[in-house]
């Protein structure tokens, strides 16, 4: 499944108003928040100039955290890091390696072991269909990973060669204010969100996909959806081939040994792998173990991709993004605490009846 990196939350401009034209300048010795607003750094001003003494940027008591010396507070700066261009940018994700290893393992097992067992007619069909669906999945996968999902204003700034501040919730409560991102330093659209993992604003932000190691937004969402569809279709085709091999082995194993290279094999318990180029002889037990492992990998991958595909089909029917869905659930969770406390006794009464 996919895991999402939550972007910085927006807040209304009324909390951090910008300095309007014609207003008097700041008094000597003071730095009002209107100047921070004119620079688009409202969130940083909230951190450095809290309203109430003794509280942090979120209004929490500083007694809950270790106090910092006054000198370190004045010199503290947010960490800097390069923005990531796409899914090939470092740091790479271990889930991305797992995804590619799964694809290569399944392709190696199907094309090298089980499809050569099929009769000649079905073998050609299986090669064509499996290779076609796999090729479509590879193309969609590569495009989704390679596309830069950032906002157009962010891509025009050529920010990828310069280190920039990184969003840190302990130092910043909000990043985008009045459609202006304080970290990217550009104006963004209403659907944009700042991704903490990619360190940039994403156009039409949906979620950050660990399996592709990139953000999914309006620029690559449909390629992402096609990746899920092609992956699910590929798993279904491979599952059907595995099922056919099992049925034929139970009914008539000789159908699976029609390749001409089996003519020199005397024992029925000996199987040839990686036909027609190699003739690796193994016993039936080895083939059975490989078949079971491949089937488990196919079914587990199909379940994960299928659940994700159904979820995004639901989101499309509701015209929602993954981010909208998660934030809606979070709001319902925070507003439903009292109601759940009231319905707790009702549930107990039902269970006791």
Summarize it:
By secondary structure, this protein is an alpha+beta fold.
Molecular structure report:
This protein has 353 residues and is α+β, with helices and mostly antiparallel strands. It has two domains: 9-20 and 30-76 and 151-202, no CATH class; 94-149 and 220-322, no CATH class. It has ten helices and twelve strands. A hairpin with a 4-residue loop joins strand 7 and strand 8 (200-202). Helix 4 crosses helix 8 (284-318), helix 5 (120-146) runs antiparallel to helix 7 and helix 7 packs antiparallel against helix 8. It is elongated.
**Averaged pLDDT, please?**
76
Largest sheet: 4 strands, mixed
Number of helices: 10
Rg is 28 Å
Structural class: alpha+beta
Strand-residue proportion:
5-15%
How do the strands and helices of this protein lay out in sequence?
Layout: E1 9-11, H1 33-38, H2 42-48, H3 70-75, E2 80-81, H4 94-114, H5 120-146, H6 152-156, E3 164-165, E4 174-177, E5 180-181, E6 186-187, E7 193-195, E8 200-202, E9 207-209, E10 214-216, H7 221-251, E11 270-273, E12 280-283, H8 284-318, H9 322-335, H10 337-352
Parallel strand pairs: 1-4
Antiparallel strand pairs: 2-3, 4-5, 5-6, 7-8, 9-10, 11-12
Helix pairs in contact: 4-8, 5-7, 7-8
